Amino acid sequence: MQVITASQVEEVLDMQRCIDLMKTALIALAEGEARQIVRPVLPLSGKNLLGMMPAFHGAGKVAGVKVLTVFPDNYQQGIPSHQGQVLVFETENGRLKAIVDAEAITGIRTAAASAAVTQVLARPDASRLAILGAGLQGRQHLRALRLVRQLQQVTVWDIRPEAASAYAEEMEKETGLPVRACATAAEATREADIICTLTPAVEPILCAADVQPGAHINAVGACAPHARELAADLVAAGRLFVDWKEAAVREAGDYLLALKEGAITEEHILGEVGQVLAGKLPGRLNASDITIFESLGQALQDLMAANYVANVLLGGKRNDSL
Ligand SMILES: NC(=O)c1ccc[n+]([C@@H]2O[C@H](COP(=O)([O-])OP(=O)(O)OC[C@H]3O[C@@H](n4cnc5c(N)ncnc54)[C@H](O)[C@@H]3O)[C@@H](O)[C@H]2O)c1
Fold this sequence. Notes:
15 strands, 2 domains, 23% strand, Rossmann fold, ornithine cyclodeaminase, domain 1, globular, 322 residues, 36% helix, alpha/beta, 11 helices, binds nicotinamide-adenine-dinucleotide, 8-stranded parallel β-sheet, 7-stranded mixed β-sheet
């Protein structure tokens, strides 16, 4: 049994490879090839949670569970908000194969999934990216999205202006792209073609008036029924796709709260992104459509990413099959 650290994950799991893995995972989920249960979440003190995310994919020879804590206010102390491990088991004999750092896996696979979906839902000429939330996901999303679109400019906003400024300086240096820190979310998103919401906000940070026609939104931050980043009028204005419907109807606050307020009906979820990735469901119909990917994050994504890392380290080569 291998114990795989965050730095090993970062060394092995390059973003482009992970984008391909996430396409496979999201399609497998939509095609019903994988087995998952909606994650049990144990509330800890305050806003903190312990989540358990199991998945099994027979064809991919992967079974296991991600166990992690989510402490949403940890950014105030410079501590990661997501910490834990992914346990990967052999499907042939049930042996524990690897324990893989969950913070690193979550950081990379979440952004890679957004990039895979952006590739099929954003306009082909989308070039202006807005990042709301200048934390780990803010950084990983820029790294991932520049692999699927020719980005020309990046705007960033965070509830802490100093976090947005530090992000702009750091990511401009890393990517060579112009990155501008904005004073408000609306200033960051007004002219954006792709918007990523990556915050632990529980009240909306974005409404329809802040988004131009034709934009694509990756709504990533709100993963619980009481929490949302998107106002109901924005959800109603968009073509809404989810990663896994079974989870979305229980956990997606952006959707559930808009539904509760009567802004949308249950039919507003058009389908799962895996169906769009497989070419079985239309995504964007017009250049002026607003498309929304409601990302909750699914166990199969973690398991496929962690299993890939374990196979590479075990086999010593990078082109192992899934
Ligand atoms: N959908 C998924 O698969 C998935 C996966 C991982 C993380 N997440 C969620 O994404 C969010 C960001 O994760 P992270 O790892 O980057 O966290 P992080 O702690 O690294 O960064 C969070 C950032 O958000 C800012 N922030 C806090 N409250 C805010 C608010 N109300 N408005 C605007 N900005 C605010 C903080 O200043 C910080 O810079 C979290 O809510 C997390 O639970 C979702």
